[in-house]
Design brief:
By secondary structure, this protein is mainly α. The protein is built from 13 helices and no strands.
């Protein structure tokens, strides 16, 4: 089965065949944890092809330019959605200190959004137009995975968002140097990782049965993230072409498998950090 076919195959059918599913960043942000450093693709010193060029060189290829516009549009809307969601989640926070912590993280997400919006404008692309194709899918994902309480919100930000962000970090290695630096910069941790781990583990220690509920919630988040992201990528020709090797030294089928092995391993480690079963 070719990678393009994988992009357009039903997620359940893919699972039955033991094949990886394509994740997009529609869901938001990357939270730096020790497992990311171990599982991240090699990115230093040996760039070739598009990855060895800067934006002025790489953007001469209209297909690559279109793929980057899609990528930045998805990321920008994701960061805006993250800002809105964290601000909303702050209402569920049990203490004023927790509210303030989430407000600080929300502000960092908005700064990331501004960076992406400004970059789109700098490459002569209307930011709203670049984001619009991804708004419906992202909004639907967040509608389907709205947390019912404070702890579910923390797990969603820490586990759910990280799945997509791991994928974008993998893709970033193949981008031109200017775009790669921007993407990796907006995937930086806003402080949510250690905060979420501390709060969730403390809650489970105080009430062990909470762990079972949150483990089920995290598994649901993973499934929804994979399904939504697969559809987003498959519906955008420029993005899917980049992934299958049409531009920017994309992945072949063997690389896709290795990539998803790394993403799955990172997810398992995050669950363990929270004290949850994957």
């Amino acid at each position: 089965m070719c990678v393009r076919t994988i992009l357009r195959t039903d997620p359940e059918e893919l699972a039955d065949q033991g094949l990886p599913q394509i994740v997009g960043r529609a869901m938001v942000r990357f939270m730096e944890t020790p497992d990311n450093a171990e599982n991240a693709p090699e990115s230093a010193g040996e760039h070739t092809g598009i990855a060895a060029q800067d934006w002025s060189q790489a953007s001469a290829d209209p297909q690559y330019r279109a793929a980057v516009v899609d990528l930045l549009g998805a990321l920008a809307y994701g960061e805006l959605a993250a800002f809105e969601r964290l601000a909303e989640d702050a209402k569920l926070a049990p203490t004023l200190d927790d509210k303030a912590e989430l407000a600080k993280m929300a502000a960092a997400e908005f700064q990331h959004f501004q960076q992406l919006r400004d970059r789109l404008a700098a490459i002569d692309t209307e930011p709203t137009g670049a984001m619009e194709p991804f708004a419906a899918a992202l909004d639907e994902f967040h509608r389907q995975t709205a947390p019912s309480d404070w702890l579910e919100g923390l797990v969603k930000a820490y586990v759910g968002d990280s799945i997509a962000s791991d994928f974008y970090r993998e893709v970033a290695v193949r981008l031109d140097s200017d775009t790669r630096a921007l993407v990796l910069g907006v995937l930086d941790d806003t402080g949510h990782a250690s905060f979420a781990v501390e709060k969730v583990r403390a809650a489970i220690e105080a009430e062990p049965r909470v762990g079972g509920r949150l483990a089920l919630w995290a598994r649901r988040l993973m499934g929804e993230a994979l399904s939504q992201a697969q559809r987003v990528v498959a519906d955008r020709d420029a993005l899917s072409t980049m992934l299958v090797g049409g531009v920017a030294d994309g992945f072949d089928l063997a690389e896709v498998g290795k990539m998803f092995s790394r993403i799955t391993e990172a997810h398992t480690k995050r669950m363990a950090a929270l004290g949850l079963a994957a």
